[in-house]
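Lay summary

Proteins are chains of building blocks that fold into shapes. Our project writes down both the chain and a compact code for its shape. Here are two examples, one after the other.
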Amino acid sequence: MGENVPVRCPACRRQHTFTPPVFPCACGEPVAPPLLRGAAPERITHRTWTDAWVTVRCGSCGRQGQWPQPELGCACGVVLRIPVRPVPRPAPGTRPSTGTRAGRPPASAAGHPTHIPLPPTAAPPRPKFRPMTIRTARDAVTAAALYLKWLGFRDIMQSPERPASGIDLRAPGMVAQVDPTTRPAGLRDVECLWLHGLSASAVGVFFSLAGYADDARARADTLGVPLFVMDLTGTPQPVNRPADELISTGA
């Protein structure tokens, strides 16, 4: 039910068509954050829990609650925050219609509303990821392993040296490749990773320091391969929808 809006990445100038996510209200009706058409997206360089939520009013029952802030991952590795139209202020002397008597959603100690659940596919809030600075190719593999562990994968095995298969990390239900080179990962790299995952009945996850060729990104979207880019701080960023979904659901 969300309205599609054009979004241009301020970093690489790619044009995207974005559809806001839809969540169920307590009354049972679907609710989508109303996007602010024409407003420039904001590049996310630092995340806080407060910035991750936006106030949305249900058009059916009038309840006002907090929902995840719409975001879009660009192929260049930039993550964009999509502006949402503010909820109008109630007229003087009236109280906003909410699901609580206090007139606003209760918040937990972490700052998120307790009466609105996360999306059904979302994992419980995780502690803040602590990245590892990348100085060598081996550091890049270790940083990726730390991130996968943060996502919930257990018993991660790291190859002692660069394997011929290209699979640097393995865990139950997961194989991962880490490309520390200065060239964008190509189509063949993505397809080989997908085949390894298919043969192992596991999800294949790709990490790259230099990003991805356009055809590799398109193929990964088709095959459902999560793609991440890492900078030298060791902080992976999702660059396609499968990667966003992996972050939401966890291992």
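And here is the second example, written the same way.
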Amino acid sequence: MIQVGLAGWGDHDELYPIGMNSSNKLGRYHEHFATVECDSTFYAVPSQQVVHKWVDQTPSNFHFIVKAYQGMTGHRKMDSTFTSNIHMFDTFKQAIAPMIETNKLACVLFQYPPWFKCERKHVDILRRTRAWMGEIPIALEFRHQSWFRGDMREKTLEFMREENWIHSVCDEPQAGEGSIPAVIEGTHAEMTMVRMHGRHIAGWVNEASSDNWREVRYLYNYNVDELQEWVGHVRQLEQHSKHVIVIFNNNSGGHAAGNAKQFMQLLGQQTAPMAPRQISLFD
């Protein structure tokens, strides 16, 4: 089974009536897509009350991919509100418990930073993370080429299979060590993730030098040929895993929802129409 969705539900204005309150958007989002990547959890661990609300706003067949909190992936130091790393992990697991209890959690995505290189100390961190997450399904995404360079490619994939990691396959700009190639391999019988980041090289490499890098990093509009190429890749991944989830993250310019619907159509899936927009005098 292939499901297509977006990174976040709040920023895709073309899905919602003009003026819709942000608190109501998830309830409308599921009319378009059956899965979503919850990226707000990367910036702060939500309360269980908030997660209950998300669960209550979605139907029984809806799935969440939850991005691991940035303290859990080394993007920032552990917050002082946590007494230890284990406390931080346990707090996060307690927060997402409503998704687990209702079978709405697809997986927790651990996206590691560009400085997380293929080194023994980082392999140890991955093993520790797998142990601390217990039976919760977890996906792994790298941002450093060393994990897939040369003979490390097969070693990394085999490690992921042995440790029961879901592979997050990426389409992203090929811009040196801080990006990874699209490795079309599943490592988990139940699920494979695909994340479509776009191919805007300039936005990808200028993170440290540009004040508005967050606004342009995912600025990309996939063309039909590029989407068709990924239809083939996703069909291939479907041979490796029962469930393939494709997330479009190219929303710096508002292209994610449109590309996701194009992709669904290329897969032969039905799509709901975008929300009607008010026509202005100058349209």
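What can we say about the second shape? The first strand starts at residue 2 and ends at 7.
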